[in-house]
Automatic annotation (TrEMBL):
Gene3D superfamilies: P-loop containing nucleotide triphosphate hydrolases
UniProt keyword Nucleotide-binding present: yes
Role noted for this protein: Core component of the SMC5-SMC6 complex, a complex involved in repair of DNA double-strand breaks by homologous recombination. The complex may promote sister chromatid homologous recombination by recruiting the SMC1-SMC3 cohesin complex to double-strand breaks. The complex is required for telomere maintenance via recombination and mediates sumoylation of shelterin complex (telosome) components.
Family, similarity comment: Belongs to the SMC family. SMC6 subfamily.
Annotated protein name in UniProt: Structural maintenance of chromosomes protein 6
Ranges of biased composition (kind: Basic and acidic residues): 8-20
Domain Rad50/SbcC-type AAA: 55-262
Gene that specifies this protein: smc6
Keywords associated with the record: ATP-binding, Chromosome, Coiled coil, DNA damage, DNA recombination, DNA repair, Nucleotide-binding, Nucleus, Telomere
Pfam families with a match to the protein in the record: AAA_23 (PF13476)
Any single Gene Ontology cellular-component annotation: Smc5-Smc6 complex
Signal peptide: none
Amino acid composition bias (Acidic residues), ranges on this chain: 21-34
Compartment(s) where it occurs, according to its Swiss-Prot or TrEMBL record: Chromosome, Telomere; Nucleus
Length: 947
């Protein structure tokens, strides 16, 4: 029975022209029309089953470029067309799209033969109905399932299963097979789809075996029979395995009984094993106790050495402080010397401003003038570029930071002049850093910066703040630094407001404050330099500042030496006081032990209090001296910060450092002394730490050994035991007991092996016995089910045979034929005899003796008799009226319409080359009229379809 339920719907009527009157008896035609009208009332409610074909489309399939789309009705469909119009192509496409192979179509041996000549692939698209409670995954596919199949010229097929909306759900054939099984669509069942070739084969079949096979396949009894054969084969294999396992079970039982006897003989050894296990537990915890005895002294020594480390740390820290102070003094002395050289340079620049750019700058300019006079330069080089005067001296620092190394740089017109200038610098500037050389063509006029320059009503640009008389210098600074786009804003806060506001000045790249800070639109940078070294006019103020710093540095240096001396004296006093305190404490302890010296003890106590008071006083003086030293050190750090601000000047005077080495030798010796003492105590501390590290490793190793021993002991005996015996005595007793057990093993074998073999043999025997029992139960159950299924199969075969005979006789009677259908299930044959007209049953003839039309009519009757006993959502019949005359054809159509009327929830597709214009209009009948083929295609299609 079908698992689907019918649903009601209205099929769209297909309007067509009134039929042309054929040459037949008018009275018979009227009777036939009345029968059809009874079958087709004006308003028909049709239950449409899921799985019926809604439409089909063919592209490049067989001899047709495009066929369709063809829409089908829910009940009766006639596909009418001449040979070559594509009827068989539609049926073949239906079989192929639903997963059938090429042999099932009887149109070729390979799928690649279905691709139209000259094309690379063919596409067949089928839409199946999916409406109702029995719909297949309606939440995924919707109300229709679209099956697209593509066949390439190489014979490769690909599937696309789509939803009603066109979304691809799957591309696997397994999913298509699942859908076909769900709908009970049997593509290879000749009753579901009876092709023209299969119909001809049945018409011309001579033996009853083919007809019987046709019947078995149509009713799926053949599949049931094949399943029975497969199950019998499986049962035979299972019976053979049971016999093999039964023989194996005997051997397992014999082995099990032998192992059981040996296992029972071990009872006498159990007591020795119990005692051995107890000794092993005691042995495990005895070993733990011995490791603990070794671990505790090591741990105590490690703690003692760690406490002694503090003494070395204090000594090392003391010399580190001394070394840090000595290094600080050495750096301070070097900074003082560098500032002294800078002071000398500034004093010498009182008379010559060019010396600010270097002591040898006047000599270099003189050499350039001399070379120019001799004609060695095509154009005299310009420089240093920082010579132009400032309109506002307060902006000297900001402009100097803006120009950076361009302040001391030179510019040449060409590379020849550059080479000459480099040679002059090599001769004159033998020490120190040489100025940069910029090679760029000289122009007599200043560049026009009107469009790209920044113009602010309140603040000047760098170009506007310089008094530059030489256009070459101005052009070089414009090209290299874009000074026309940089503003000078004295106030740092105002500069940030202007640059980082909503509307920064147009064409302005950045701005500099009077302190030298550089401000961009999205960030800013603070200057490291505090005063101008090259562009400042007030040299006297710089000299006075340097001299003041020199006096302050000398004063601070004197204070540091004095403080250092006081600290050294206080440290000596502290050590002496601590020694006296310890001595006094020892004496006081000794005197307190004497019961008869109470008066002397009181005197000593007063002396002790006096010494403690002195110690407290000295400690206060020491702390005060250290605080004073910290203040002086802070003052030194401030002075050092000021000296660092003269970094650029210090670099230019680096070559004079050798002259001051003698002045620093004493400081270097002090530093070396401090380093020596620090290294000495550092080495002693490192050696001590190394010893501690080794001891720590030993302690860690011993602790790990202890933990491992405890873990092993807990594995043997989870509860800790108090063992008074030594591990050695326990080991001796364990050895003695093992020897005794080994002696027993020589007679009985290994105990653990015997126990293990016994349990393994018992388990193997029990498992095998259970397996055989399960297999025997399975065979019995299979025999019982097989008997039931075989009985049901026999009953079903007899029932289906009787129904087929009944329907066959009924169909023949509508034509006035009599017939007989004889099933021989033993020999698997089916004989069909038909007597046209009202004759005697004794005169029944074999179908081969009938005319072509009578044989076709008999075939239709046989197929129609199988339809009621075959479940499928649709049936297809190709050229059912082949060889029929008009009378047989009319009766066959009437019978098929009656069958279709009795199964309104099924779909019927009939293919015929004959006109169906004689049928009246009916909503339940849908006619698909194919176009006549073109002449060339007609011949090719006829060759494929046959006569």
């Amino acid at each position: 029975m079908s698992k689907r339920k019918s649903i009601s719907t209205h099929d769209k009527s297909t309007k067509r022209a009134r039929p042309v009157e054929e040459e037949e008896d008018s009275e018979d035609a009227d009777d036939r029309d009345q029968d059809v009208e009874r079958l087709c009332p004006q308003v028909v409610v049709i239950d449409i089953d899921v799985g019926i074909v809604k439409s089909i489309t063919l592209n490049n399939f067989m001899c047709h470029a495009n066929l369709g789309p063809f829409a089908f009705g829910s009940n009766v469909n006639f596909i009418v067309g001449k040979n070559g119009s594509g009827k068989s192509a539609i049926l073949t496409g239906l079989i192929v799209a639903l997963g059938g192979n090429a042999q099932a179509t009887n149109r070729g041996s390979s799928l690649k033969g279905f691709v139209k000549e000259g094309e690379s692939f063919a596409v067949v698209s089928i839409t199946l109905n999916n409406i109702g409670k029995d719909a297949y995954k309606p939440e995924v596919y919707g109300q229709a399932i679209v099956i697209d199949q593509k066949i390439t010229r190489e014979g490769i097929r690909t599937y696309k299963l789509k939803s009603q909306s066109g979304h691809i759900i799957s591309t696997k054939k397994e999913d298509l097979v699942t859908i076909l099984d769900y709908y009970n669509i049997q593509v290879n069942n000749p009753v579901t789809i009876l092709t023209q070739e299969m119909s001809k084969y049945f018409l011309h079949s001579k033996g009853g075996a083919e007809k019987y096979k046709f019947f078995m396949k149509a009713t799926q009894l053949e599949q049931m029979k094949d399943d029975f054969v497969h199950i019998k084969s499986t049962k035979s294999v299972t019976v053979d395995k049971v016999e093999q396992h039964s023989e194996c079970l005997k051997d397992l039982k014999r082995d099990y009984l032998e192992k059981e006897d040996r296992y029972k003989s071990l009872a006498s050894v159990n007591e020795m094993y119990t005692k051995l296990e107890e000794l092993k537990k005691q042995m495990a915890w005895a070993l733990v106790g011995e490791v603990e005895k070794e671990f505790e002294p090591m741990k105590e020594k490690l703690e003692s050495d760690r406490c002694a480390t503090n003494k070395f740390n204090e000594k090392v820290d003391e010399w580190k402080v001394s070394l840090s102070l000595a290094i600080f003094l050495e750096g301070l002395q070097k900074s003082i010397d560098a500032n002294r050289r800078q002071l000398q340079s500034m004093e010498s620049s009182r008379s010559n401003r060019l010396q600010r750019f270097g002591d040898q700058m006047p000599a270099l300019l003189a050499a350039i003038d001399e070379a120019h006079k001799k004609g060695q330069f095509k154009h005299r080089p310009r420089g240093p570029l920082g010579k132009p005067c400032l309109k506002d001296p307060e902006l000297a620092l900001s402009i100097e930071i803006c120009l950076k190394n361009l302040v001391q740089a030179f510019t040449c017109d060409n590379y020849d002049d550059e080479r000459v200038l480099k040679s002059l610098m090599t001769k004159v500037l033998q020490h120190g850093r040489r100025p940069a050389i910029i090679t760029s063509r000289f122009f007599p006029k200043v560049h026009d910066t009107h469009r790209r320059a920044v113009n602010h009503p309140d603040y000047p640009s760098v170009l506007q703040a310089l008094e530059i008389e030489d256009p070459v210098v101005a052009n070089c600074l414009i090209d290299q630094r874009a000074i026309e786009c940089i503003l000078l804003i004295k106030n740092r806060t105002e500069a940030r407001r202007v640059m980082q506001g909503r509307n920064p000045p147009q064409n302005c790249t950045s701005a500099f404050s009077v302190e030298g800070d550089q401000i961009f639109t999205n960030r800013s940078y603070t200057a490291d330099q505090t005063r101008a070294n090259f562009l400042s006019k007030d040299v006297e103020e710089g000299i006075r500042s340097m001299e003041t710093q020199k006096v302050q540095a000398a004063h601070i240096q004197q204070q540091i030496r004095s403080t250092d001396k006081n600290i050294s004296e206080n440290q000596d006093l502290l050590r002496r006081t601590q020694t006296e305190q310890k001595t006094t404490e020892v004496r006081h302890s000794q005197k307190c032990l004497s019961r008869h010296s109470a008066v002397n003890a009181l005197s000593q106590e007063e002396d002790l209090q006096e010494i403690i008071a002195k110690i407290s006083s000295k400690r206060a003086e020491y702390d005060e001296a250290r605080a004073q030293m910290a203040e002086l050190k802070s003052a030194f750090e401030n002075a050092e910060q000021e000296y660092k601000q003269h970094k650029q000047l210090i670099n230019t005077a680096a070559e004079e450092a050798d002259v001051k080495k003698e002045e620093l030798s004493k400081t270097d010796q002090e530093v070396m002394k401090c380093k020596h003492h620090e290294k000495h105590y550092e080495e002693r501390r490192n050696a001590h730490l190394c010893s501690i590290k080794t001891l720590e490793n030993n302690v860690a190793s011993k602790e790990k050994e202890l933990q491992e021993s405890i873990a092993k002991a807990k594995e043997i005996c989870p509860e800790q035991l108090v063992v008074r015996r030594t591990a050695r005595s326990l080991d001796v007793e364990i050895t003695r007991l093992k020897v005794k057990i080994a002696t027993q093993r020589e007679h009985q074998g290994d105990r653990e092996e015997i126990v293990r073999e016994y349990h393994e043999a018992l388990e193997s025997y029990a498992n095998k016995a259970q397996q055989i029992k399960n297999l025997n139960n399975f065979i019995k159950c299979l025999d019982r089910v097989m008997d039931q299924r075989l009985y049901a199969y026999t009953v079903l075969r007899r029932f289906l045979s009787a129904r087929c005979k009944y329907y066959f006789d009924s169909m023949l009677a509508q034509r006035g034929f009599t017939g007989n259908m004889t099933f021989d299930h033993k020999n698997e044959t089916l004989s069909i005899s038909v007597q046209p007209g009202q004759g005697n049953k004794a005169d029944l003839n074999d179908m081969r003796c009938l005319s072509g039309g009578e044989r076709s009519f008999s075939t239709v009757c046989f197929v129609l008799s199988l339809w009621p006993i075959t479940e499928a959502p649709f049936r297809c019949l190709d050229e059912f009226d082949v060889y029929m005359d008009m009378v047989n054809r009319r009766i066959s159509i009437d019978m098929m319409l009656k069958v279709a009327d009795s199964q309104k929830n099924r779909q019927f597709i009939f293919l015929t080359p004959q006109s169906m214009s004689s049928l009246p209009e009916c909503r339940r009948i849908h006619i698909v009229q194919l176009n006549d083929p073109v002449r060339g295609q007609t011949q090719m299609e006829q060759e494929e379809e046959g006569p």
